[in-house]
Amino acid sequence: MRILLAEDDELLGTALRAGLQQQGFHVDWVRDGSAALRELQAVDYEAAVLDLGLPRMDGMEVLQALRQQGRSTPVLVLTARDAVQSRIQGLDTGADDYVVKPVDLHELAARLRALVRRSSGQASNMLRAGDVVLDPSAHKVTLAGKPVDLAQREYDLLHALMRNAGRVMSREQLEEKIYPWGTEVASNAVEVHVYHLRRKLGSELIETVRGVGYLLPEVVRSGE
């Protein structure tokens, strides 16, 4: 799951990025508001963690511009501004959640998963396609109730396809979902990951749409 972190404090940003990466997120980190807005306009992030006291462009301005442009990326505001009026303003401007620093990293990760889940219209974290169940909070995949060992990229690719079930995803879109900034990606990397997923989860799970990309055609429903 790829998210954007906008935080200008070097120590806090380093800690947040490391902690969220340990929770299974791919984190792109920017340190000012102008860069945050630019990245949110260019990349289809699952969610964003946005500080309000950013240089060059205040976080509230970033949020307002994002919503005025019709972009619906889930945004969690993480800030030291704890006044009730600040929380009201943030939520009314378009924030999906508002958290006052300091925050426990496990809670932050859970809130991000909840934002992504709600944005996809899901009642539960659990994603299901036939006998395949993916649990983002536990970072586990099972097939007919039995755990399946997936490499990190395989897991990320499956997660992206399951969250977009019924929609054809191009190779470029999938690369954007599973690889963070600066990663050198082999031209056949996605194809290799799909091959391994089919071997481990069944050849019928992922459909190739020739010349377009990949499709997980079965309806994914919330787990119980």
TrEMBL record:
Positions carrying 4-aspartylphosphate: 51
Residues of the OmpR/PhoB-type domain: 124-218
Pfam families reported for this sequence: Response_reg, Trans_reg_C
Primary localisation category: cytoplasm
GO cellular component, one term: protein-DNA complex
UniProt cross-references to InterPro entries, sorted A to Z: CheY-like_superfamily, OmpR/PhoB-type_DNA-bd, Sig_transdc_resp-reg_receiver, WalR-like, WH-like_DNA-bd_sf
GO biological process: regulation of DNA-templated transcription
Residue ranges of the annotated DNA-binding region, renumbered to this chain: 124-218
Localisation: Cytoplasm
GO molecular function, one term: phosphorelay response regulator activity
Response regulatory domain segment(s): 2-116
Stored PROSITE patterns: OMPR_PHOB (PS51755), RESPONSE_REGULATORY (PS50110)
Recorded superkingdom: Bacteria
Keywords from the named record: Cytoplasm, DNA-binding, Phosphoprotein, Transcription, Transcription regulation, Two-component regulatory system
PANTHER family (UniProt xref): REGULATOR OF RPOS, TRANSCRIPTIONAL REGULATORY PROTEIN QSEB
Protein name: Two-component system, OmpR family, response regulator
Protein's organism: Brachymonas denitrificans DSM 15123
